[in-house]
Design goal:
Elements lengths: L6 E2 L4 E2 L3 E7 H14 L1 H6 L6 E8 L5 H16 L7 E8 L4 H9 L1 H8 L26 E3 L2 E3 L8 H13 L4 H14 L5 E8 L4 H17 L6 E6 L7 H4 L1 H14 L1 H11 L11 E4 L2 H7 L11 H25 L4 H6 L20 E8 L13 H13 L1 H4 L10 E8 L6 H11 L10 E8 L7 E9 L5 H11 L3 H6 L9 E6 L7 E4 L12 H5 L8 H8 L1 H4 L7
Parallel strand pairs: 3-4, 3-8, 4-5, 8-9, 9-10, 10-11, 12-13
Antiparallel strand pairs: 1-2, 6-7, 11-14, 12-14, 15-16
GO molecular function, one term: GTP binding
Protein name: Tubulin-like protein
Length: 568
Amino acid sequence: MAQLSIYHSATGKQSPHCIHIVGLGKAGAQLIDSFLRTGEVEDLLADPRARFTALAVDIGEADMRQLQQYADSFYARLAERGIPANRAQIKTVALTVPTPQELADSMQRFPTFLGSEYPRFGGAPDHFAPWIETGTPFPTAEKRYAAQLEQPAENEHFPRALAKAIYGRAYYDGDRALYRELAEFARSIDDTKLPSMVLMAFGIGGGTGSGMVVDLARHLTNGQLGRRVPVIGVGVLPCTGDPEYQRGASVYTTLNDIDCMLDEAKNEQIVSIWGDMYKNPFTGGFLALPQQQSWERLHRYTTIKPGVRPEVRHRQAVHVTNKFVDDSFARYVVHDYGRELFRILRPAGFTGAPHERISYGDRNWTIFDVAKLTHPGVQVLPGEPIGKWRTAISDWIGYIPQWCGLRPGFKTEYIEAHTFAARAKWNATLQKKLEDTLSEFLLPGDSGTLRTTEGEFFDELTLYTNVIITGAAKADLTAFTEARDAYDALSPSERLTTHAWLLELGVMLSEPSEQFEGLCGKPLAGATGWKLDIPYAALRGDVTRFPTAVQLTTAAMAAPVQTVVPTP
């Protein structure tokens, strides 16, 4: 491997990048699985300057057992290639479920814990209020599996508010196990002799990962890493095959929390009150991964095998969908030794030089849609004429706008599409269909740019396109509107369980303020309210500052443009 400097200005070439990953909850652990399966990570570790660091955190260990098995295989492959095992650090942390009394005792000490980080707490602030009531029944972290498929139990869902409290107890209380794990994760990155990027992966639906990420992200980025390394949020969006609780109200509150991190105008309001620890922790940007098209493609089969119960087949389809999306994303991230990920984040404004970037504000979301276009046994069988295959592929290209997770009418200035197909499958006609289909999302004329590439895939029967769409707002996500309706249908006590970010400050972010008309941020019972100058209508998604990112940046540049010197 050529020994390049980190950024070789004479040629424009870059050194390899090291990818590190934190996976939260089941979705995060499964994404780490995919990186361990690809085979490319050990290629990077052949460079003595490189390291790979992975940390999975979940409540209970059940959803991390497969990761542990993949880690054993990964280390075995390193040994076969003569690569020192200490170039990789793969760890799992299974948080135990405390008793209600144990958690209540920890929460009583939260003002002291938080006072060590934020002097404004002062040890016993009148604005702190526990957000978990004493006596609340807790779910179980135990899970049942049959043939590696989870058998759902009635009492296994951890809502966001409870997951946040369990995380806080593990981070602040007792021997501070999570604090020590994050410090060790950061030290491993500091030992890397190549530029690094950190992925922080979790499911936007559900509760465990989305409940913990709001605190873990700030503790890692703004604390342990000191904002020295790009941290890229990776939020897996639910599909219609997921359980209802993963598609429901918590999606709405999670998207609001992330939006108030990514949008500088909103984030500044939080930081102005509570300081830099609440500054946007996703310094490398945020990628939202829809799963709907892969779900639609994978759960449709020509026949159902006799003797297979529909609920078992359904869980198999969900499992395969998760795995395909994760594997496709992981392969792309490690492509060209991480350089490709760095490059695709530049158009979104996160990996360029500071002087190159004009913030997209509330349009700082990037969609990474794995559009699966073929599956044997759906419409076409292996061995049938190539013309029939291409007709089916063309049909599924046409479904991309319907299932990419964006509302009809969305427009942006930049899209990338990277297609991976067997050599004989893809042709100019399909390429034209893809370009015409994605152009629906582009601004007209020279205001919109579509960049495409083609790569050869090793499997003759698999064909997919990674569609990367910049400049989205949370309100452009179809999941946002659906989840908001589900949130509105909840009782006040049920709504509280779906919150996470700012609960330690006594604030329910997604609720309207009771003290300041038109603003968001309802205080918890017993807590002092705070004036967050964030319009409630913006949290609801009823207004975005500009219809497109281009209009936003044009307005931001209106004053500087007046200083441009004309030329003849």
